[in-house]
Design goal:
Helix content is 20%, strand content 23%. By secondary structure, it is an alpha/beta fold. It binds citrulline.
Length: 263
């Protein structure tokens, strides 16, 4: 029952009509805003069914990618840290997060403005915080996070996310406090030697961004071999449809901040 997989609360932000303007590495067509809202509702329901109280922020049309709220802040047992997204169209998303998170945490800090760091590049486990440098997260941003967390006694390990992978957690996710599901390539990189790992079946790499929530494992719908792999490993798997988020490179972790408040 550790802090990296058990949470009482989550914050999400509704997708806006501007979602068609969301960033993506490859264009496979725009997300349908109404369908996205519907799928988002089911995502919220899956979190609630896992015992999480979900607070829903309104859509923020000015920032098409703001539904991917994980990239703007990091929530930890001792407090929250406001991040600084590295995509220029997203940097402004974090401006409101200190206000939002001060209702839940007595200690809300900020990485400042020296570098860039997005939540998708941060994996919180029981023993450490892993930061993957990427196109969105640079060394200065990672160092700023490390400095922020010094007096909370949290170890930060900085790695290089593999080329062509948007975020570190695009290629891996936590399924419990000590087990990580990862693409074959990420699992082979040697990052997770002190963890148990489950290697995703060939062709189902897009299912890597699983999230562990209070004993359940949420995975994207449409990856039957992954569902079987994780179920066989003894987990209670919940499949969530995220086709619209996926069109703009969004996954399960990025659509919520999951935490247990200190206030
Ligand atoms: C972006 O490119 O920033 C968004 N379209 C997707 C962000 C996904 N975030 C995440 O996986 N943490």
């Amino acid at each position: 029952m550790g802090h990296s997989s058990h949470f009482s609360n989550a914050i999400v932000r509704l997708p806006g009509k501007s979602i068609a303007g969301g960033l993506r590495a490859h264009n496979v067509g725009d997300p349908d805003p109404a369908r996205f809202v519907d799928q988002h509702g089911h995502y919220v329901q899956a979190l609630e069914e896992a015992g999480v109280h979900v607070d829903i922020l309104p859509a923020w049309e000015q920032f098409p990618d703001s539904v991917f709220i994980e990239d703007s802040a990091l929530c930890l047992p001792a407090g929250a840290v406001i991040l600084r997204p590295g995509a220029t169209t997203r940097t402004g998303e974090s401006a409101v997060m200190a206000d939002v998170l001060s209702s839940y945490f007595g200690d809300v800090r900020s990485v400042g403005e020296d570098g860039f760091i997005e939540g998708g590049d941060i994996m919180v486990t029981e023993s450490e915080i892993i930061v993957g440098l990427s196109e969105r997260t640079d060394a200065a941003g990672a160092k700023a996070l490390q400095d922020c967390l010094n007096d909370w006694g949290l170890a930060v390990r900085i790695l290089q996310t593999q080329p062509g992978v948007l975020h570190f957690k695009t290629a891996c996710g936590l399924v419990d406090d000590e087990t990580i599901v990862a693409t074959k390539s990420m699992a082979a990189a040697g990052f997770f030697n002190t963890y148990k790992t489950l290697v995703l079946p060939e062709g189902e790499e897009a299912a890597a961004n699983a999230i562990a929530v209070n004993g359940k494992v949420l995975i994207p719908e449409g990856f039957p071999k992954t569902a079987e792999l994780i179920t066989r490993a003894g987990y209670s798997v919940v499949q969530v449809a995220i086709s619209e988020a996926a069109k703009v490179d969004g996954g399960l972790s990025c659509m919520s901040l999951r935490f247990t408040p200190t206030l």
